[in-house]
What does this fold into?
Amino acid sequence: MAQPAVVEVRRSDRRRRMVSARREGDTVIVFIPGWMSDAEERRWVDEMVRRLERSEARRRSPGRKGDEALRLRCVELSRRFLEGRARPTSVRWVPPMRTRWASCTPADGTIRISERLRDAPGWVVDYVLVHELTHLLEPGHDARFWAWVQRYPRTERAMGYLEGLSAAAGLGLVGTDGDVPEGDVADGHVADGDVADGDVADAPEPASATG
It folds into this structure.
């Protein structure tokens, strides 16, 4: 992941524990307590920059937008990766499914995305959309299906992310039919002081407090 053009560190003896970061234009400002050593400063600056970038990526995710944004994103993804051949009639968010991240009904061209993915990074939501769009071309999960899906360059990474998300939350979202109506195909896709909105923060302990 590319680092921001400028990182500015601001120390304050008034800060006892809180470390926070925010972006001001092209600069990331990291606020740290005055007691931190140079080594701790470097570690926390790197960590807070990573957290801020993850937070910004989540806010840019299609999951933060409504059904129309999903549909428009599908049009773009189909054009880029599926030669424009996948044309869903409906793409919408639905309440969390018991065993699935998403489902598709090829017969009527509808796609449903679990609201569990609303906070997922944009590239993960894009993968799920590409996966479901591909079912409009290839209903099964055969070699032809995966040849299409793997045109999306972050396929393997997104699959790993979803596996980790499922395991961490104890969801057990796997590739079974679960609660999907007959005629549908569905996927668990098994195969990131006061803190303002947009800031990230943590509260490390001073070395003397941690032994």
Observations:
- The chain has six helices and eight strands.
